[in-house]
Write a structure and sequence with these properties.
The protein is mostly helical and 559 residues long. It is built from 31 helices and no strands. It is elongated, with a radius of gyration of 33 Å.
Length: 559
Amino acid sequence: MAQDTTVPKLNFEYWLDKAIEWGQASTLESQKDVCLHLPQLQEFLHQLYQTIKHLGSTAAIQQFPLIGQLLGRLCWNPFVIGYDESQKTLMWCLCCLYSSEPQNAVELKANSWIRSLLCHLLCSSKWESNEAETSTFISALGYTSADYYCHLVKNMVISLVTELRENQFNGLNIQESTSASRVNAVSIFCVPLITLPDLTPLLETLLLYHGGSSKEILSSEFLEAVNDAFLKKKISLPESAVFSLWLRHLPSLEKATLHLLDQLFSIQLNSLEEVTCVIKDSLLPQAASHPAIFRIVNEIFKSALMETDGTSELMTIIQVFTQLFLQARQNEYKQHKFPLKAYFPYHHQPLVRGLIRRPFELPTTYWSQHLKHISDMVKAVVEDRNISSLIGPFEIWYLIACFGEWLDIAAEQLLKAAVEPDAVLWLLAFYYCPKNENQERTQTMVEAEAVYNHLKMLFSCADLSLKDLEAAVHKVTGTEQCCNQHLTAHLLTNFLLFSPGGQKLAQECIYHISETTDTSKDIYNLLIRTAYRFNHGGEENQRTVKLLNELLQKLTLKV
């Protein structure tokens, strides 16, 4: 075996001959020779990388036609990849050969070979199952196989993370040597290893990496794989990395939103606490602090509403999401906040500011005045009185629906407080009947006012019978139903919850309405929203919460 280790720095043929001669270093003589040449080999690999990193894959192969054979042989030599930074340098050399946009079958096949070679470099199971000599080598170093490969992967990830971070910016924030094609290649090589815990720092670094190109530099396969693993809770990532993923890859954001809806619809939700927990855990409300994410999620919600004909379950989900979004936005540092117009660019901004104020932020004595203010603005926008609007009734309706907490407050205030009933009833009538085709909203307003007057007259009565409520109940359950039985059911449910006499009849009456109409889900969702708001109330509220819990328990099986 030749012992002369003084060779030219870039003597390609010499090192190819050596790689062929060594094989996988299965004999003692070849192992000794490899060890003697490791420092010079590492220097050669570094020089090779510096030579080809600016060439591009095609030019690199033209200058070194046998480079694939050399690198392939060295990657299967456990002594070479176990030495210092040789494994990292081999990986970067392979990245330089990867075609980010393969033009023919040869380049596609070469890319596939490179991916498998990189998987081999990082995946211990292949070494352990195929290379008995490797185990001997590791044992000689004083490691168990598990320890060795664990440290190897960690060191590899640390090296790649350091390289990416150092090369992304210099002191002047100018992109340095790491090209977009090599970063793209690294992202592809990570795909089979996404769920490896030690790879998480590299995933985070890649997701936060931004080159100078206007095109996306990370592969779509990588972005999709990371998103799938995150949604299935196979990996844990910092919020900043997840937000960056959704900002740079629209399909992942869409899939995350639809996944959340599927998750919420597939489980029996018995309280808004549970809904809140699931939505918050998705990180979507927090991510929505960025206007681009908020608007896309909102569009998906709107599409879902149109497909489901505005189900009460989906409306409740959207309302909770909006509340959590407002909390996340409120928690942001002031200098990082986007203006409201960035989230609602086409809406009448005073109306947005009015709706975005949460009820708990105002004294209860001010609620009625605030509701009238909201109703007046909505009516002015809808009827185009001195307010130019770029949006139609549906968009205005959807905006109000997102802040549906105020609608529930409106229905309560009608019965419990001194309000201007015309303004509040109009707001509720618009929500339940936004189109006003054939004067439907006008008719709804007339009938809702009649129900309201009847219920208001009975509100203070301590002793009531079902007969006293017969007229209102008939509006919901009778054969000659009112224009909008859902609005009437909303008013009647609030009467049963908050009036002294109504509470005694609540279980019987609500269960009867649920049995004889299609409003059971509306009532159920109204009850869980109300229970959520009152959970931290005073003694009076606690009595109401007890009634709410009894009603929810009785209605759970029906819905």
